[in-house]
Every structure is written in C-alpha cells, then in structure tokens.
Amino acid sequence: MDILKYIVDEGLIMIPALYVLGEIIKNTELINNKWIPVILLIVSIGFTPLIINGYSADNIVQAILIAGATVYSNEFLKQVKKEK
After folding, report:
1. Domain total for the chain?
2. What is the DSSP string of 29-84?
3. DSSP 3-state assignment of 13?
4. How far apart are alpha carbons 54 and 83 in whole angstroms?
C-alpha cells in the first residue's frame, strides 16, 4: 500500500522531521522505544495541521497518516538493513 499517495504535499515535510525526532528520542534512552510511535503521533497531530492550513478533521487524518508513514518507513529501513 502506497500511503504517500494519500498525504498532501504540504505535509510531506513532517515525515523527515518526525523521523529525526524519533531518532533523537531513541538515542536519549530516557524514553522506552515502545512509546516513540505514540509520541510521534501526538507531535504530528499538534504540528501537522499548522502546516496545512489549520485544525480540521481532514488535517487530523493527514497528521495520523504522516505519523504512520514515518513509523512505517523506519520499520522498512530496519528490515532492509537486517537483510544485508
């Protein structure tokens, strides 16, 4: 499933931003890794609508999709590295 086709162009910038945030959280070791997707979802819901014209139901859905794409891409990269 190509989740990126459902994300508006303005929101795509949040994917690398959330990815970097997730890596920072992971490397601090203050927070258990199992909470990183939840934190990224909360941050995405907080900031993504600001980038794409305010809070609305559609923009909240965009924030959820963006957080999902970020977590999915991280898991995909882990699997690719594991196969090498």
Report:
1. 1
2. -SS-GGGHHHHHHHHHHHHHHHHTTS--HHHHHHHHHHHHHHHHHHHHHHHHHHH-
3. coil
4. 41
Average pLDDT over residues 16-30: 94
The pTM of this model reads: 0.87
Domain region containing 34: 3-83
Q: Say how far apart CA 76 and CA 54 lie, in whole Å.
A: 30
Structure tokens at 3: 């989740």
What amino acid occupies position 20? V
Report which of 47, 20, 48 is spatially closest to residue 36, judged by C-alpha positions: 20
